Amino acid sequence: MLELINVGQRYGRKTVLDGISHSFAPGVTVITGPSGAGKTTLLRLCASAERPKSGTLSWNGKPLGRSPRAFRTGLGYAPQRIDFPEDISGLDFMLHMAALKMIGTGAARIQATALLDRLGLGRDASGLIRTYSGGMRRRLGLAQAFLGDPDILVLDEPTAELDPVTAEHVHDLIFEQRAVVLMTTHLAESLANRKYQTLKISMLDSVK
Amino acid sequence: MASILDRFVVHARIQFLRHLRSPVIWVLALAAPIAARYLLPKAGADYSVMAVNGAYLELDPAVIGFQLGVVMAVILSPLAYIFLRAGPTRTQPWQADDMTPARRSVQMLAHWVADTGALWILMLVLGLAGVLLSAFRLPLSDVRPFQTLLALSLIAAPALAVIAGLRTVFSARRGLRGAGGDVVFFLVWLAMLIMAASYFATGVGGSPMLDILGIAAPLSGATDQVISELILIGSASYEETVRIDALAGVLSSDFLLSRLLWIGMTAVAVMAAGAIYAPHRFKPLRRAASGAGGPASFSGSPISPAHPIGSFIPLLLSDIRLLARPHWLAIIVILVALAGIMLPFRGMVGAALSLLLIFPLTQHGARWRGQQMAALSAVTPRGPEDVIIRVVAAVLVTALLCLPSAMRLVLTGEGGPWIDIVAIVVGLPLTAILLGHLTRSAVAGRLLLLILWYIYLNIGSPPI
């Protein structure tokens, strides 16, 4: 379980989040709120990509320290944008991300191939990333997050730039995870038949 | 419709603000006074920055500017190129830009003016540091800020404008936007040095137009001596000093005219590059190569488990695998390495191998350093130490490639080339990977290593 206690974030003089407390249990939690409310900042904090200016985050009761390797071993994170290395193939990228997650080479290849197949990139796995379309890059960025059977998945707009059919496949994959899943989406209506929690953040830094 | 002048101002302003809003230019501006301290050594220092015919230049306010200007035009000009190619303006929004009806010539001229402006700011900071230092190197009554800045500017400013022009021209053609442009810049820079040297050879009466960097002509004009030797940054220390009239050199009408002409010709070249601008090409996926066409197919099969094993070995293996990209280059490198069994290392296999390795090593050093990519790697368990593992992988690969030559050395009992092997196995990967990591680009490592490689080729022993 991921727990946020009075978490706040500030960039210079601008306060983006203030006093957020929430517990994320296994299952999908969709974070909603208007543009600029701090959804991406909240996800970055939960992915340990930033440290909060105030408050604490803890994973299974242990606070995330300066270098939370144990937490990161079970983390899958897909940010909104990734500037991919353009001169390698999608499979190469997946294998390198698996290596960064300390997954053994053989198991990594099997899982990476399966994930690429699952997200409709199997045929193009050996193509260079520079030849990928926007939607393919989005799916590749998403696929790497699922490597290593993560205990917590942090997905920033996982279905942006995807057509409705592809988005549905992505949602299928997300909702079959047993992990703690935090995601943002502008397409909450497409999740109508699925079971999930909602965390709403507003522009005035409060949680409803 | 906005006038051409309006569009020029808009493009130039945006490009210039991108420079100013980046921390890179301010870091360099902070580094400039420190550099000036070492470029103007105290009397009795055990190294020389500029020596003419075996003697130090006798310092006066103009000579201080002159010395800084020459170093900036010759030695710091590749750094200026790296700053422009790998710095805050390395990416341009071409996806949108290429679709607009904007005149490329106006846009490129504006970019050149902005880039030149950014370089001139750095030059002025170096000059001001020189003025400050002149108060410590000269009697206080001799300090003449105007003379120092004038001598510096007349030498370095046109040279920097030419460097900025090369960057802009290279951005116009597809083959020059990547590594090809860096190699061409290296060759042009070498050619400019050779042309300056040939100016000394022709003696007084040669055209200052030959001296693109603007170092030889003012030096020749500043002294009656025939310049037989000019050393920039040397380890030797000299007993004697030589007095030159730096202001006479930089203010000679021929030299001033040649500077104006070079700036003008650079502006024309930049505008001409706009006329032959080739839009970026988006390369769509060649589906025919990877299977049948049509929409993507999604499998519904379950994902097999793959748990972290807690070791750095997978990352090491992945780095080694990625160093062998592209495969065709890897095959050539292996063939050259194997030739080491029969051919001498120094001057042959070592030179070929190090030249070929510069490109994949620098590329791999920068490959994972895009801003968002780096942020993503950082939250993986091996992210914090991935650069160390990348260096280890690069050293291992380079060592393996040098193995055939090492075997030959053991068998023949040659001793000299061992230092070359050590420099290539350790120095090359370390420089390539760390510079790529720090600058987030392959340009700095590529250019610096090409220059070091050229020195190695000429002096016959490793410069690092």
Automatic annotation (TrEMBL), chain A:
ABC transporter domain boundaries: 2-204
Pfam families in the cross-refs: ABC_tran
Sorted UniProt keywords: ATP-binding, Nucleotide-binding, Transport
SUPFAM superfamilies, alphabetized: P-loop containing nucleoside triphosphate hydrolases
PROSITE patterns, A to Z: ABC_TRANSPORTER_1 (PS00211), ABC_TRANSPORTER_2 (PS50893)
Keyword Nucleotidyltransferase: no
Designated name of the protein: ABC transporter domain-containing protein
Organism: Algimonas ampicilliniresistens
Automatic annotation (TrEMBL), chain B:
Keyword entries, A-Z: Membrane, Transmembrane, Transmembrane helix
Keyword Translocase attributed: no
Bilayer-spanning residue ranges: 20-40, 62-84, 112-136, 148-170, 182-201, 260-278, 322-342, 348-366, 387-406, 418-436, 443-459
Protein name: ABC transporter permease
Organism: Algimonas ampicilliniresistens
